[in-house]
Specification:
Layout: H1 10-28, H2 34-41, H3 45-73, H4 75-93, H5 99-116, H6 119-126, H7 130-163, H8 166-173, H9 175-187, H10 205-212, H11 215-244, H12 249-261, H13 263-277, H14 281-297, H15 303-331, H16 337-348, H17 350-366, H18 370-389, H19 395-402
């Protein structure tokens, strides 16, 4: 029997885009004020990195339960519960006075991140034909990329001079999440579209066992793990690296934001190209090879060349991200897509915890970024190798299998 899909309502799409933006903004504002937090709280680089990576650790921990929750009670309720944790935790971060309370509220925000984000691919998959799900995810990714590019570009030159404290900066970053939570509960239907979770399912341990037994999902999770080591270490530490080679704090954030600004047209255009070609793998291994050269090249650049380096890094990281985000929902049937996406994200976002923390320890120990970039080059080589191995999920392969 053919699968039946309905278009994602424009109202739901608009709120989901605001949610995608609000999910990541409170996290991605942290690298722009890392030096201020370190100085005012008197903590090490590694502890500051924990403020950046702890929410992603919660995402890794809760991605599978969050996916299972959506499979059981529906996307509307599962994401809605997540928005409450997300917005409350993000607001309370802005009221912290010491490291312990800041970390605690950051973890609370991370709980919401773990419940909301794994279910955006499920929303795209249920409300779009299979060949269009990757494009819908590309639209969501634009909002995510924008949520990082904007604070990198404007926090230090525009927001911090007005805020005068990192707490107020964090409070401002919580506002989109609060707005998205209110709109989600008030205006999004249950289900969000006619084909999205019309019939919810109970917890099925046999289905979970089948997902865990899938080698292709483990490979997708490993790819996502390695990708996040590179992406989160890069975004988390490059602003401070640039100040070390002569950039002002304002300029460092702006230069780093190029990584994400370039990603916006990349995630709009390249998923469409990938879908038209029916190929995913070349975009995965090609971007990984580009990141090998980018990571190694960071050892030799000067300030003017850093703009060029960020340009190519942005194309590679955002292209790979949107492809990886789509992989689990393209590998399984819709009724288990939430659990499959949760499993891949659970594995993958451990990398977002490991990478920045390792970078912080390296920086605290050596005082140099040299070994950070060498490590990222090695990780990118491994990622390229695995991308050659992973099964192709593009449309042409799907036609061959079903035809």
């Amino acid at each position: 029997m053919a699968e039946e899909y309905y278009r994602l309502p424009r109202r739901v799409l608009a709120i989901a885009l605001l949610l995608a933006f609000g999910i990541w903004l409170p996290l991605l504002v942290v690298p722009t004020i890392e030096d201020i937090i370190t100085r005012q709280l008197g903590i090490s680089h590694a502890l500051t990195a924990l403020l950046y990576s702890a929410p992603v650790a919660m995402l890794a921990l809760l991605a599978i339960p969050g996916g299972l929750l959506a499979d059981r009670i529906g996307i509307k309720k599962a994401v809605g519960i997540g928005t409450i944790f997300l917005s409350v935790g993000a607001v309370l971060r802005g009221m912290s006075t010491d490291f312990s309370t800041l970390l605690g509220f950051t973890i609370l925000y991370g709980v919401g991140l773990g419940l909301c984000f794994p279910n955006l691919p499920k929303l795209a998959r249920y409300c779009s034909p299979r060949e269009r799900a990757n494009v819908t995810l590309g639209i969501f990714t634009v909002a995510i990329v924008f949520s990082g590019a904007l604070p990198l570009a404007i926090t230090r030159p525009l927001i911090y001079p007005i805020a005068q404290s990192f707490q107020v900066v964090l409070l401002i970053s919580a506002l989109p999440a609060v707005a998205a939570a209110i709109l989600w509960w008030l205006l999004v239907g249950d289900p969000p579209c006619e084909s999205a979770g019309v019939e919810t399912v109970g917890f099925d341990i046999s289905a979970l066992r089948k997902i865990v037994a899938r080698a292709d999902l483990w490979l997708a999770g490993l790819l996502f793990f390695l990708h996040n080591i590179v992406l989160y270490t890069w975004i988390g530490w490059v602003p401070q690296f640039l100040t070390g080679i002569g950039a002002s704090a304002d300029a460092a954030g702006l230069i780093t934001s190029v990584v994400l600004w370039v990603g916006i047209p990349s995630v709009i255009l390249l998923p469409r190209v990938s879908t038209r070609l029916g190929k995913r793998k070349p975009f995965l291994w090609g971007s990984s090879i580009l990141l090998v050269f980018a990571s190694y090249g960071a050892l030799f650049i000067n300030l003017p060349l850093s703009w060029v380096l960020m340009f190519f890094t942005g194309i590679a990281t955002t292209t790979r991200f949107v492809m990886l985000l789509a992989l689990p929902v393209e590998m399984v049937t819709p009724e288990i897509s939430g659990s499959a996406s949760g499993m891949v994200m659970s594995i993958g976002y451990v990398g977002a915890l490991v990478g920045p923390l390792a970078g912080g320890f390296i920086l605290d120990t050596t005082g140099s970024y040299h070994w950070i970039f060498i490590s990222l080059a090695v990780v990118s080589v491994i990622t390229a190798v695995i991308a050659f191995i992973i099964p192709e999920t593009g449309k042409k392969l799907a036609v061959k299998i079903t035809g």
